[in-house]
Predict the structure.
Amino acid sequence: MNQLKAKIKYLKSFLKSEWDFNDYPLETWKNPNAEQNDLEYGAKFTNWWSLVAHGESENKAVENLKKHLADFKKNNTEIPRPGANVPIEYIESDRIEKNEHIAVEFFDKIIGINFYDCFISDLSSLHDFDLADEQTLEKIESEFGIVPKDKDYFLSDIFEQINKKASG
């Protein structure tokens, strides 16, 4: 049924030159295993796998998806056609791979998961793991002797900072 709605939205999109939120085929769901209230519901557009939002209610997830779409439109010149299949694009991970030995130890000591059990790009940050807090920063300083410089807390920057301290 979702694919049929997507096809209809896709065909209708040729009647307009610009699309708004309501032009996209919307899917919502409840996460039965969500451990956090703000992840209990999800929302996305059919066939657009990378634009997903969550919230403590279905309405909040949809509202967050609207914000994500607005941000996407603001930061991109090409906007996917409603209903079209939007391929997943991976961000480079060259800087992470260069410091893999640090990443493995960092994930074990700071994040508490196996580095090899997830995909991490050069733009992954402590924020992605909900760890951009004072306690985590203190733990990083204690374990690695550095204080992350940038408030974005990109892991690639942190790993390079740790590598520089170890080499210097």
User: Anything to note?
Assistant: The helical segments are 2-12, 58-75, 94-98, 100-111, 134-144, 155-167. The longest helix spans residues 58-75. Residues 55 and 61 are 4 Å apart (CA to CA). The chain has two domains: 2-75, 94-167.
